[in-house]
Amino acid sequence: MEANAGAAGTIARRPAARVAAGGVLLAHHGTAGAALAERRAWRIAAAANLPIVHLYVVPDFWAGMQGDDWLNNAWTRDAFAAHLEGHLEAEAKAQLQAVAAGCAERGFPCEPVLRVGDPTDCLIKTATEYRTAWVVIGPPRAKGVPGYRCRVDLERLVRGLRVPLVVAQGE
């Protein structure tokens, strides 16, 4: 496994072996919008007989989450950081395994990629590194829907990608 540098430490890993170039990069993190993207990616992959590269991004805003405002000693702060990292890693593994299982059921090779950082930067870097033919993301979360907002900068993403971007919508 190759580790990506980052403040979150051990959770940013990806396998060293890679699927063939030209796959479909699927950004999926377990939301309803990500499920739309997953279904769209499967259709694209099936039509062109392409593998899936599943990108799960842990946004970099978690890196500084230490609860300093209420924790008063280094041991407690470190214990909280370890707890948070463990929770994020378990959530990421569950999502990576779920998408891999869905791909296996449909006969698609699947390459899981776990990154820590800015979601837009991670998408551009992964698309370039894996030389994907497509990038598929879910729609922005609607206002009023609970959850963290780690929005992708669509303008920067479109300018940074050299392949088609599909933003899945309700189906």
SSE inventory with pairings:
Blueprint: E1 2-3, E2 13-14, E3 24-27, H1 32-48, E4 52-59, H2 74-106, E5 110-117, H3 119-129, E6 134-137, H4 154-160, E7 165-167
Parallel strand pairs: 3-4, 3-6, 4-5, 6-7
Antiparallel strand pairs: 1-2
Question: How would you describe this protein?
Answer:
This protein is α/β, with parallel strands linked by helices and 171 residues long. The chain has one domain (2-167): HUPs (Rossmann fold, 3-Layer(aba) Sandwich). It has 4 helices and 7 strands, in the order E-E-E-H-E-H-E-H-E-H-E. It has a 5-stranded parallel sheet, sandwiched between helices. A two-stranded antiparallel sheet has the order 1-2. Strand 4, helix 2 and strand 5 (110-117) form a beta-alpha-beta unit. Helix 3 packs parallel to helix 4. The radius of gyration is 17 Å and the shape is globular.
